[in-house]
């Protein structure tokens, strides 16, 4: 049975309490710094002020990213990987910090949302992607290439991932689809590995970790979302059924058989 733990507090302070090299894989979905009185977003087809919460307002984004990323590097195992999601608002900063700390950049992954909402403005292109840095401390890192190939119907998995955005299961404004985390966790970890999410939010990473029989530790600064994440993970059963809820896989009998045979090894 997976060991699941969520702690409430500032991630930088909580990271300092973890031992060096104690984590097998890290997924981080940090604040993108999108919120502000002069920033807009779209809700129900109408423009509104972008206000995701106080946690999404960072005075010095460069300093903040540098602090939490350095601590993540310290606690990451020598053969582990760190996956960091972002947009153009924070992605360049994260990439430079990873390079400046001598991490090996494995991939920049483009998550393409085929069903992204339209843009009301006529002055720019409609945003339909998010970006994910994949990095490690050396070139000797764990990566399940064979399973990635099976999941991609026998072909090499590329760094362009077409995964639809999903209706949020909670009120968290930046909740990620479970299928996105499923792919990341399957590629970047083994069963019983320890996965860390320093910005847990509504608990998606913990939910998927539990379903795939991984151990998990998450940090979350909001009392409200700590409660939501804990309840959500508590109601989750250990199961690999998530994989087969993907329509592309569920409709392909041969692919389902290949995946099942892989997990039996």
Helix content: 25-40%
Tertiary shape: globular
Note the beta-strand portion.
Answer: 15-25%
Biggest β-sheet: strands ordered side by side in the sheet:
1-10-9-2-5-7-6-8
Which CATH C-level class is it? Alpha Beta
- Uncertain spans, ≥5 residues at pLDDT below 50? none
Total number of distinct structural domains: 1
What's the quaternary structure here? single chain
How far apart are the termini?
Answer: 19 Å
Here the CATH topology equals Rossmann fold
Computed over alpha carbons, the radius of gyration is: 18 Å
Relevant CATH superfamily = Vaccinia Virus protein VP39
- Helix vs. strand class: alpha/beta
Total helices: the number is 10
DSSP summary, beta strand count: 10
Mean pLDDT: 88
CATH architectural designation? 3-Layer(aba) Sandwich
Largest sheet features: 8 strands, mixed
List SSEs in N-to-C order.
EHEEEHEHEEHEHEHEHHHH
Describe the structure.
There is one protein chain. The chain is built from 10 helices and 10 strands. It has helices spanning 11-15, 61-75, 91-100, 145-151, 178-188, 204-211, 223-234, 241-244, 247-250, 253-264, and strands at 4-8, 23-28, 40-43, 46-49, 76-86, 104-112, 129-136, 160-162, 194-197, 215-220. The relative contact order is 0.18. Strand 9, helix 6 (204-211) and strand 10 form a beta-alpha-beta unit. Helix 2 (61-75) packs across helix 3 and helix 5 crosses helix 6. The radius of gyration is 18 Å and the shape is globular. It has an 8-stranded mixed β-sheet with strand order 1-10-9-2-5-7-6-8, sandwiched between helices. Strands 3-4 form a two-stranded antiparallel sheet. It is an alpha/beta fold. It has one domain: Vaccinia Virus protein VP39 (Rossmann fold, 3-Layer(aba) Sandwich), CATH 3.40.50.150. The longest helix has 15 residues, at 61-75.
């Amino acid at each position: 049975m997976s060991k699941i733990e969520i702690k409430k507090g500032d991630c930088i302070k909580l990271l300092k309490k973890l031992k060096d090299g104690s984590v097998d894989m890290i997924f981080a979905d940090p604040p993108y710094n999108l919120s502000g009185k002069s920033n807009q977003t779209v809700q129900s087809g109408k423009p509104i002020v972008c206000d995701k919460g106080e946690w999404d307002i960072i005075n010095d984004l460069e300093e903040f990213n540098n602090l939490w990323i350095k601590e993540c590097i310290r606690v990451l195992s020598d053969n582990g990987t760190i996956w960091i999601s972002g947009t153009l608002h924070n992605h360049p900063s994260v990439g430079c910090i990873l390079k400046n700390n001598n991490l090996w950049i494995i991939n920049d992954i483009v998550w393409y949302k085929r069903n992204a909402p339209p843009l009301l403005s006529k002055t720019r292109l409609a945003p339909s992607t998010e970006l994910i840095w994949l990095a490690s401390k050396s070139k000797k890192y764990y990566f399940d290439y064979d399973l990635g190939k099976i999941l991609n119907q026998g072909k090499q998995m590329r760094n362009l991932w077409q995964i639809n955005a999903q209706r949020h299961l909670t009120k968290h404004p930046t909740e990620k689809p479970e299928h996105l985390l499923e792919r990341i966790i399957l590629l970047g970890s083994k069963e019983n590995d320890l996965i860390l999410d320093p910005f847990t939010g509504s608990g998606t990473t913990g939910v998927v970790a539990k379903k795939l029989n991984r151990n998990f530790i998450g940090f979350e600064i909001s009392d409200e979302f700590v409660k939501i994440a804990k309840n959500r993970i508590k109601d989750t059963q250990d199961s690999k059924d998530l994989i087969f809820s993907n329509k592309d896989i569920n409709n392909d009998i041969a692919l389902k058989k290949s995946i099942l045979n892989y997990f039996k090894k």
